[in-house]
# Entry
Amino acid sequence: MKIIQTIFDSQRKHFEGSGKLRVLKPLFEATETFFLFPGITAGSGPFVRDSLDLKRFMSFVILALMPPFLFGIYNTGLQSCRVSGLPVDPISVITQGLWIVMPLVMVSYGVGFFWELLFASIRKHPISEGFLVTGLLFPMTLPPAIPLWQVAVGISFGVVIGKEVFGGTGRNIFNPALVGRAFLFFAYPTKMSGDAVWVAVIDPVRKAADAISGATPLACPVSSETGETVVMALEKAGYTLSRLFWGLYPGSIGGTSAFYCLIGAVILILVGVASYRIILGGILGLLGTGLVLNIVAGSSANAWLALPPVYHLIMGGFAFGIVYMATDPVSAPGMENVKWVYGFLIGALTVLIRVFNPAYPEGVMMAILFMNIFSPLLDYIEIGLRLKKRISNV
# Structure
């Protein structure tokens, strides 16, 4: 470490003061803190005796993202190999998954980092490590077959409009990764929805014939026959509870497996990054709303009303959204009690959007963005209630 420190110390003069590379000072500082602990210390009290800086904080999130990310690489490769007629041995599947997923991740990080560096240089502040998470979260919410140029457009919109226009990391009211995904969904719907986008087919000739192989569980009710329940349609398509829980089906890169998202949730809660109140509140909201809709379903023509709530919990991207997106410490409420309300409403809205809006069957991403708007209001309400309980000065 001493050798690395010496290298950075010898080059620092070029990036500070009137150095020739002073415009790139944010890049230099970001690179230095990647290898070393921040060298800035407080000159006077009060002192915070904690070595956990923002970069280390975000590193915990990256660690928790690894289970669904690595599984997403495997599942993406598996679905692609099956549809493309390629061998499905582990090596072929993982190789194919890496070939599909890694370009999306590299474009996301490369383009997003460009915007981070540009705004940091203009505003003359260090590059925020918050993008380490956003740059990985964003491609994990996308379908595998999305064009790379749309990944670049989406992450650009998410970083610039979703974060930088508000002042950068810590000041954004929306989750940047979700802002980018929502933009792509409404700007390029044919590349973000439908059966054909969830599996990256290698042979274009086979794409039309095998498009149905890419049908997601959330798309099954749309093609269900008259008098057929959603559960019957799912089981007919091979989507059992076990398969939905493990996530071996076409979908977004990181959002199909409830099991691996559960592992990530445990990691985030144990290290104190994510709030268990938001996660449990979201689960309660989803199950409660689903149960109420089951009760009032009756003979309604809307088959979604009678879908058992547990299916809402494990199908689609709800598990991924409630664990990694809803718990974003910037866009979520800061007060502890309203986190229950925040999570509960995300779960409830997810079910309502899925049931009553066939044009957007996923639901969870829009539910989180909608509740991001009300996050400051929830904090304001709890602070007001706490102040009312205080004893007035006499």
Notes: The radius of gyration is 23 Å.
